[in-house]
Hints:
Layout: H1 2-40, E1 76-78, E2 88-89, E3 99-107, H2 110-121, E4 127-130, H3 132-137, H4 139-147, E5 151-154, H5 166-184, E6 186-188, E7 190-191, H6 202-208, E8 212-214, H7 228-238, E9 243-248, H8 255-270, E10 274-275, H9 278-295
Parallel strand pairs: 1-6, 2-8, 3-4, 3-9, 3-10, 4-5, 7-8
The site of zinc ion has 5 residues, from strand 3.
Amino acid sequence: xxxxxxxxxxxxxxxxxxxxxxxxxxxxxxxxxxxxxxxxxxxxxxxxxxxxxxxxxxxxxxxxxxxxxxxxxxxxxxxxxxxxxxxxxxxxxxxxxxxxxxxxxxxxxxxxxxxxxxxxxxxxxxxxxxxxxxxxxxxxxxxxxxxxxxxxxxxxxxxxxxxxxxxxxxxxxxxxxxxxxxxxxxxxxxxxxxxxxxxxxxxxxxxxxxxxxxxxxxxxxxxxxxxxxxxxxxxxxxxxxxxxxxxxxxxxxxxxxxxxxxxxxxxxxxxxxxxxxxxxxxxxxxxxxxxxxxxxxx
Length: 298
Ligand SMILES: [Zn+2]
Protein backbone atom coordinates (compact mmCIF):
# COMPACT_ATOMS: atom_id res chain seq x y z
CA UNK A 1 0.00 0.00 0.00
CA UNK A 2 2.75 2.44 1.06
CA UNK A 3 5.04 1.52 -1.82
CA UNK A 4 2.09 1.80 -4.19
CA UNK A 5 1.35 5.29 -2.80
CA UNK A 6 5.00 6.36 -3.16
CA UNK A 7 5.05 5.06 -6.73
CA UNK A 8 1.85 6.97 -7.55
CA UNK A 9 3.25 10.18 -6.01
CA UNK A 10 6.54 9.84 -7.85
CA UNK A 11 4.65 9.43 -11.15
CA UNK A 12 2.56 12.52 -10.37
CA UNK A 13 5.70 14.56 -9.56
CA UNK A 14 7.33 13.36 -12.77
CA UNK A 15 4.24 14.40 -14.76
CA UNK A 16 4.31 17.89 -13.18
CA UNK A 17 8.06 18.33 -13.84
CA UNK A 18 7.55 17.06 -17.37
CA UNK A 19 4.69 19.51 -17.95
CA UNK A 20 6.75 22.44 -16.67
CA UNK A 21 9.65 21.42 -18.87
CA UNK A 22 7.35 21.14 -21.88
CA UNK A 23 5.70 24.54 -21.24
CA UNK A 24 9.04 26.33 -20.94
CA UNK A 25 10.30 24.56 -24.06
CA UNK A 26 7.24 25.70 -26.06
CA UNK A 27 7.53 29.30 -24.86
CA UNK A 28 11.21 29.33 -25.85
CA UNK A 29 10.33 28.04 -29.31
CA UNK A 30 7.62 30.78 -29.65
CA UNK A 31 10.03 33.54 -28.61
CA UNK A 32 12.61 32.38 -31.13
CA UNK A 33 9.93 32.24 -33.81
CA UNK A 34 8.79 35.80 -32.96
CA UNK A 35 12.28 37.23 -33.00
CA UNK A 36 12.89 35.55 -36.34
CA UNK A 37 9.77 37.07 -37.87
CA UNK A 38 10.74 40.55 -36.48
CA UNK A 39 14.15 40.20 -38.04
CA UNK A 40 12.51 39.76 -41.43
CA UNK A 41 10.57 43.09 -41.27
CA UNK A 42 12.57 45.78 -43.02
CA UNK A 43 13.46 48.60 -40.59
CA UNK A 44 13.04 52.32 -41.49
CA UNK A 45 15.79 54.78 -40.63
CA UNK A 46 13.50 57.39 -39.06
CA UNK A 47 9.79 57.35 -38.42
CA UNK A 48 7.71 59.83 -40.45
CA UNK A 49 7.48 63.10 -38.53
CA UNK A 50 3.83 62.63 -37.58
CA UNK A 51 4.72 59.42 -35.79
CA UNK A 52 7.38 61.04 -33.64
CA UNK A 53 6.49 61.36 -30.00
CA UNK A 54 5.87 64.96 -28.95
CA UNK A 55 8.85 66.33 -27.02
CA UNK A 56 8.53 66.29 -23.26
CA UNK A 57 7.50 69.70 -21.93
CA UNK A 58 10.48 71.52 -20.55
CA UNK A 59 10.12 72.10 -16.84
CA UNK A 60 11.41 75.52 -15.95
CA UNK A 61 12.91 76.19 -12.55
CA UNK A 62 10.41 78.02 -10.39
CA UNK A 63 10.69 81.77 -10.65
CA UNK A 64 12.11 81.68 -14.19
CA UNK A 65 10.07 83.82 -16.58
CA UNK A 66 7.84 81.84 -18.96
CA UNK A 67 8.97 82.57 -22.53
CA UNK A 68 6.06 84.23 -24.33
CA UNK A 69 5.22 82.51 -27.63
CA UNK A 70 6.30 84.60 -30.62
CA UNK A 71 3.19 85.77 -32.46
CA UNK A 72 3.14 84.74 -36.12
CA UNK A 73 4.18 87.69 -38.28
CA UNK A 74 1.22 88.93 -40.27
CA UNK A 75 1.88 91.16 -43.23
CA UNK A 76 0.40 94.62 -42.97
CA UNK A 77 -2.45 94.98 -45.47
CA UNK A 78 -3.82 98.24 -46.81
CA UNK A 79 -7.22 97.15 -47.99
CA UNK A 80 -10.59 98.84 -48.17
CA UNK A 81 -13.67 97.38 -46.47
CA UNK A 82 -15.20 94.58 -48.59
CA UNK A 83 -17.92 96.79 -50.08
CA UNK A 84 -15.29 98.94 -51.85
CA UNK A 85 -13.34 96.09 -53.47
CA UNK A 86 -13.36 96.33 -57.27
CA UNK A 87 -15.10 99.71 -56.98
CA UNK A 88 -14.05 103.20 -58.06
CA UNK A 89 -14.17 105.84 -55.31
CA UNK A 90 -13.84 109.60 -55.65
CA UNK A 91 -14.56 110.56 -52.05
CA UNK A 92 -16.21 109.17 -48.95
CA UNK A 93 -19.54 110.34 -47.60
CA UNK A 94 -18.93 111.17 -43.97
CA UNK A 95 -21.31 113.39 -42.08
CA UNK A 96 -20.46 112.83 -38.43
CA UNK A 97 -16.86 114.14 -38.39
CA UNK A 98 -14.45 116.33 -40.35
CA UNK A 99 -11.88 114.11 -42.01
CA UNK A 100 -9.88 114.45 -45.19
CA UNK A 101 -7.40 112.23 -47.08
CA UNK A 102 -4.32 113.72 -48.73
CA UNK A 103 -2.82 111.49 -51.43
CA UNK A 104 0.60 111.77 -53.08
CA UNK A 105 1.35 110.17 -56.46
CA UNK A 106 4.50 109.22 -58.41
CA UNK A 107 6.96 108.72 -55.53
CA UNK A 108 8.81 107.66 -53.54
CA UNK A 109 11.43 110.35 -54.10
CA UNK A 110 13.57 112.71 -52.02
CA UNK A 111 10.55 115.04 -51.80
CA UNK A 112 8.60 112.24 -50.10
CA UNK A 113 10.93 112.65 -47.12
CA UNK A 114 10.11 116.37 -46.89
CA UNK A 115 6.40 115.60 -46.95
CA UNK A 116 6.83 112.91 -44.29
CA UNK A 117 8.52 115.48 -42.07
CA UNK A 118 5.58 117.90 -42.41
CA UNK A 119 3.04 115.14 -41.77
CA UNK A 120 4.91 114.00 -38.66
CA UNK A 121 5.18 117.54 -37.34
CA UNK A 122 1.38 117.86 -37.47
CA UNK A 123 0.66 114.26 -36.45
CA UNK A 124 -1.11 113.74 -39.77
CA UNK A 125 -1.11 110.75 -42.11
CA UNK A 126 -1.65 110.40 -45.87
CA UNK A 127 -1.69 107.84 -48.68
CA UNK A 128 1.19 107.44 -51.13
CA UNK A 129 0.53 105.89 -54.56
CA UNK A 130 3.97 104.70 -55.61
CA UNK A 131 5.52 103.76 -58.92
CA UNK A 132 7.28 100.40 -59.04
CA UNK A 133 10.30 101.95 -60.78
CA UNK A 134 10.71 104.44 -57.91
CA UNK A 135 10.11 101.80 -55.25
CA UNK A 136 13.01 99.84 -56.68
CA UNK A 137 15.22 102.95 -56.50
CA UNK A 138 14.09 104.13 -53.04
CA UNK A 139 12.92 101.19 -50.97
CA UNK A 140 14.10 102.83 -47.73
CA UNK A 141 11.89 105.86 -48.32
CA UNK A 142 8.87 103.62 -48.92
CA UNK A 143 9.65 101.80 -45.69
CA UNK A 144 9.66 105.09 -43.79
CA UNK A 145 6.32 106.05 -45.37
CA UNK A 146 4.69 102.94 -43.90
CA UNK A 147 6.58 103.04 -40.59
CA UNK A 148 5.22 106.55 -39.99
CA UNK A 149 1.65 105.22 -40.16
CA UNK A 150 0.83 106.23 -43.72
CA UNK A 151 -0.85 104.00 -46.28
CA UNK A 152 0.79 102.92 -49.50
CA UNK A 153 -0.88 102.20 -52.84
CA UNK A 154 -0.07 100.93 -56.32
CA UNK A 155 0.36 103.39 -59.22
CA UNK A 156 1.82 100.90 -61.79
CA UNK A 157 5.48 100.51 -62.70
CA UNK A 158 6.00 102.83 -65.68
CA UNK A 159 3.05 105.25 -65.48
CA UNK A 160 1.86 104.45 -69.02
CA UNK A 161 -1.08 106.49 -70.31
CA UNK A 162 -1.66 104.44 -73.46
CA UNK A 163 -3.91 101.43 -73.79
CA UNK A 164 -2.36 98.27 -72.41
CA UNK A 165 -3.06 94.57 -72.84
CA UNK A 166 -4.14 92.58 -69.80
CA UNK A 167 -0.68 90.99 -69.74
CA UNK A 168 1.04 94.40 -69.56
CA UNK A 169 -1.42 95.63 -66.92
CA UNK A 170 -0.71 92.50 -64.90
CA UNK A 171 3.07 92.95 -65.19
CA UNK A 172 2.87 96.63 -64.27
CA UNK A 173 0.55 96.23 -61.28
CA UNK A 174 1.75 92.86 -59.95
CA UNK A 175 5.44 93.80 -60.07
CA UNK A 176 4.74 97.08 -58.31
CA UNK A 177 2.83 95.10 -55.68
CA UNK A 178 5.86 92.86 -55.22
CA UNK A 179 8.10 95.90 -54.68
CA UNK A 180 5.63 97.45 -52.23
CA UNK A 181 5.88 94.24 -50.24
CA UNK A 182 9.66 93.94 -50.56
CA UNK A 183 10.33 97.48 -49.41
CA UNK A 184 7.66 97.84 -46.71
CA UNK A 185 6.47 94.34 -45.77
CA UNK A 186 2.95 95.55 -46.60
CA UNK A 187 0.41 94.38 -49.12
CA UNK A 188 -1.87 96.91 -50.74
CA UNK A 189 -5.24 96.72 -52.44
CA UNK A 190 -5.29 100.45 -53.22
CA UNK A 191 -4.81 101.38 -56.85
CA UNK A 192 -4.64 104.72 -58.60
CA UNK A 193 -4.51 104.67 -62.39
CA UNK A 194 -1.84 106.88 -64.03
CA UNK A 195 -3.41 110.15 -65.14
CA UNK A 196 -6.68 109.00 -63.57
CA UNK A 197 -7.44 107.09 -66.79
CA UNK A 198 -10.11 104.50 -66.24
CA UNK A 199 -10.37 103.04 -69.73
CA UNK A 200 -6.87 102.02 -70.85
CA UNK A 201 -6.77 98.57 -69.23
CA UNK A 202 -5.17 99.25 -65.84
CA UNK A 203 -8.33 99.96 -63.87
CA UNK A 204 -10.05 96.90 -65.34
CA UNK A 205 -7.20 94.64 -64.27
CA UNK A 206 -7.05 96.25 -60.81
CA UNK A 207 -10.78 95.73 -60.31
CA UNK A 208 -10.42 92.11 -61.39
CA UNK A 209 -7.80 91.73 -58.67
CA UNK A 210 -10.07 93.22 -55.96
CA UNK A 211 -8.29 96.56 -55.71
CA UNK A 212 -10.27 99.67 -54.91
CA UNK A 213 -9.60 102.23 -57.65
CA UNK A 214 -8.95 105.46 -55.78
CA UNK A 215 -9.68 108.66 -57.70
CA UNK A 216 -10.02 112.08 -56.05
CA UNK A 217 -12.50 114.89 -55.40
CA UNK A 218 -10.02 117.79 -55.15
CA UNK A 219 -7.31 118.40 -57.77
CA UNK A 220 -5.29 121.60 -57.19
CA UNK A 221 -3.26 120.77 -60.36
CA UNK A 222 0.04 120.79 -58.48
CA UNK A 223 1.43 118.60 -61.25
CA UNK A 224 1.85 121.66 -63.47
CA UNK A 225 3.82 123.43 -60.70
CA UNK A 226 1.73 126.50 -59.90
CA UNK A 227 2.90 128.65 -56.94
CA UNK A 228 2.42 127.04 -53.51
CA UNK A 229 -0.17 129.66 -52.54
CA UNK A 230 -2.32 128.71 -55.55
CA UNK A 231 -2.19 125.00 -54.66
CA UNK A 232 -3.03 125.75 -51.00
CA UNK A 233 -5.91 128.09 -51.89
CA UNK A 234 -7.40 125.53 -54.26
CA UNK A 235 -7.40 122.80 -51.59
CA UNK A 236 -8.62 125.03 -48.77
CA UNK A 237 -11.51 126.46 -50.79
CA UNK A 238 -12.79 123.01 -51.81
CA UNK A 239 -12.22 121.12 -48.54
CA UNK A 240 -15.18 119.03 -47.36
CA UNK A 241 -15.41 116.08 -45.04
CA UNK A 242 -14.62 112.81 -46.83
CA UNK A 243 -12.65 114.54 -49.62
CA UNK A 244 -9.69 112.88 -51.32
CA UNK A 245 -7.00 115.37 -52.42
CA UNK A 246 -4.68 114.66 -55.37
CA UNK A 247 -1.08 115.82 -54.88
CA UNK A 248 2.32 114.66 -56.17
CA UNK A 249 5.61 113.76 -54.52
CA UNK A 250 7.29 112.74 -57.79
CA UNK A 251 7.36 113.38 -61.52
CA UNK A 252 9.30 116.66 -61.35
CA UNK A 253 10.32 119.38 -58.94
CA UNK A 254 7.75 119.28 -56.11
CA UNK A 255 8.93 122.18 -53.94
CA UNK A 256 5.64 124.05 -54.53
CA UNK A 257 3.69 121.01 -53.35
CA UNK A 258 5.89 120.62 -50.26
CA UNK A 259 5.40 124.28 -49.40
CA UNK A 260 1.65 124.11 -50.03
CA UNK A 261 1.25 121.03 -47.81
CA UNK A 262 2.98 122.79 -44.92
CA UNK A 263 0.33 125.54 -45.21
CA UNK A 264 -2.72 123.33 -45.90
CA UNK A 265 -2.38 120.98 -42.92
CA UNK A 266 -2.32 123.52 -40.07
CA UNK A 267 -5.10 125.60 -41.71
CA UNK A 268 -7.43 122.63 -42.04
CA UNK A 269 -6.57 121.45 -38.54
CA UNK A 270 -7.63 124.87 -37.26
CA UNK A 271 -10.97 124.26 -38.97
CA UNK A 272 -11.33 120.98 -37.08
CA UNK A 273 -10.23 118.55 -39.80
CA UNK A 274 -8.37 115.34 -39.09
CA UNK A 275 -6.09 113.76 -41.69
CA UNK A 276 -6.61 110.06 -42.34
CA UNK A 277 -5.43 107.48 -44.88
CA UNK A 278 -7.71 106.32 -47.69
CA UNK A 279 -8.42 102.92 -46.04
CA UNK A 280 -9.26 104.73 -42.78
CA UNK A 281 -11.56 107.12 -44.66
CA UNK A 282 -13.42 104.27 -46.37
CA UNK A 283 -13.64 102.37 -43.10
CA UNK A 284 -15.25 105.42 -41.50
CA UNK A 285 -17.90 105.55 -44.21
CA UNK A 286 -18.54 101.81 -43.86
CA UNK A 287 -18.88 102.06 -40.05
CA UNK A 288 -21.12 105.10 -40.32
CA UNK A 289 -23.43 103.29 -42.77
CA UNK A 290 -23.48 100.29 -40.44
CA UNK A 291 -24.40 102.46 -37.45
CA UNK A 292 -27.23 104.12 -39.40
CA UNK A 293 -28.54 100.70 -40.42
CA UNK A 294 -28.39 99.52 -36.79
CA UNK A 295 -30.37 102.54 -35.60
CA UNK A 296 -33.22 102.01 -38.07
CA UNK A 297 -36.33 100.44 -36.45
CA UNK A 298 -36.67 96.80 -37.42
ZN1 LIG B 1 0.76 109.64 -61.50
